[in-house]
Specification:
Helices cover about 55% and strands about 0% of the residues. The protein is an all-alpha fold.
Amino acid sequence: MDERLLEILEDIQPEADYETCTTLIDDHYLNSLAIISLVAELEEEFDITIPTVEIIPENFNSAEAMWNMITRLQEEG
């Protein structure tokens, strides 16, 4: 897991345990406004474009899922 990702998440919503939580969306740690901010931050920090079809709970329910999406999008270029 990337420290930059954890820092971005903690800036947006400091109350969640990103090391272990796998229900960030399901348990409403991240709301729609947080997701919009998160997408913008991730795109800028990791030089990726997150297509609308990727903005689904499965990709944002945990930091690990987000990191997997980021690395996949980087590889796809």
